[in-house]
Structure formats: C-alpha cells, structure tokens
Design a protein that fits this description.
Blueprint: E1 4-6, H1 11-19, E2 24-26, H2 33-42, H3 47-61, E3 67-77, E4 80-82, H4 88-98, E5 102-113, E6 116-129, H5 134-148, E7 165-169, H6 172-175, H7 180-189
Parallel strand pairs: 1-2, 1-3
Antiparallel strand pairs: 3-4, 3-5, 5-6, 6-7
C-alpha cells in the first residue's frame, strides 16, 4: 500500500522516492503553472512563495485519501524568477545569463491530507555557476535538451550539468526537485515509515 501519492510524473522525483524505499503512487496534477506563476508575480510574490504555492496547488488538485505530495521548483536569479525553458534558444539564454554568477534554487514540497496542507518545506540551495563559453553552452543544450527542457534554469546537476558548476551549497536532493531528507523526517515522525 502506498505511503503517499506523488502529484507529479517527474521521473527524477519518482526515482528519489523509489530509491528511498517510500511506497508511492504517481498521478499527474492538472495545474496551469504558467498562469499561476504569472498571477503570483503580478501580485508581487517572491520566488519562495511561488514555489510553495505551486507545490500546494498540485497536491490539492489530486482527490484521494491519504497523504498527497506536491512539489515545485523555481530559480531565483537576483529576485527574478526563472522557469523551465520553452525552447533550446531560451535554454542557451538562461545558461548564458547564469554563467559566472550565483543564484538560488528553491525546491518546495507540500503534503495535503483531506484537502488541507499538513506539512510543507521549502529548501534553498545556492548554486554558483562557473564561467562557461558560448560554444560549450550551445553543445550542452544540443546534447541535453530532452533532459533540461524540464529543469528550471536549463541544467540537470545529476548529469553533464555538474560541469557547469563551481560550487553548490545546500541539499543535493533539493536540487533534483525534492527535499527528501525533511520529507523522510516527517514520514518517520508520523509513523508512516520505519527507521
């Protein structure tokens, strides 16, 4: 029997839960992320609140008994929100903008039970990208487009994207899209998992 329902079809998040031996079921939430982000940005909400609100909204969209886990990830570059790239050209522009600079990657997780949020966590990871050449950026995007098209900031640290970075300060699992250790703490404390 699943311990929770993951309101996501992300293969990376599924692998993290599977590798941590958390029984789960995956269901796609129906959320217009772009419209929600635009509305929250128009309201003046900071990136942290946007990640949290999207994670909660995704969990609330799944109607089922038990714990429902919603997740979202946004990139905060000097107070501006950076999302998943819409095209290879946008991915190149994002990586060029981040080259040689430090940004924050925010990874939010919310658990909902009976239509009410009962747990939430937003992890912040400081990411310092090395100065990369335009030629490398072009080749990186061409080689990795199928993976990075689903990544805020146009990189996947678990693959070749590691070469882009000089320093990463924070939770590696959060970089992958799920603050796994705080989630495990919650599930163990609630008696849903043994430890």
């Amino acid at each position: 029997m699943p311990v929770l329902i993951l309101a996501s079809t992300s293969r990376t998040r599924q692998n993290l839960l599977r590798n941590a031996a958390i029984p789960f079921e995956s269901r796609p939430p129906r959320v217009d992320e772009v419209a929600v982000k635009d509305a929250l940005l128009a309201d003046g909400q900071p990136p942290r609140n946007i990640a949290d609100a999207l994670a909660e909204m995704k969990a609330l969209r799944i109607r089922a008994p038990g714990f429902i886990l919603g997740c979202d990830q946004v990139l905060d570059h000097d107070g501006a929100l950076m999302s998943k790239p819409a095209s290879p050209q946008e991915a190149k522009a994002q990586l060029t903008m981040l080259s040689g600079k430090t940004h924050n990657l925010l990874s939010a997780a919310v658990i909902v039970e009976d239509g009410e949020p009962i747990w939430r966590h937003v992890a912040t990871v400081r990411m310092t990208m090395r100065k990369v050449t335009p030629g490398y950026v072009t080749g990186y995007v061409e080689r990795n487009w199928d993976t990075i098209r689903n990544s805020a900031g146009s990189y996947a640290l678990e693959g070749e994207g590691a070469r882009l970075f000089h320093r990463v300060d924070g939770d590696y699992f959060a970089v992958l899209g799920l603050p796994l250790l705080p989630l495990l703490d919650f599930l163990i404390t609630r008696g849903k998992l043994d430890a």
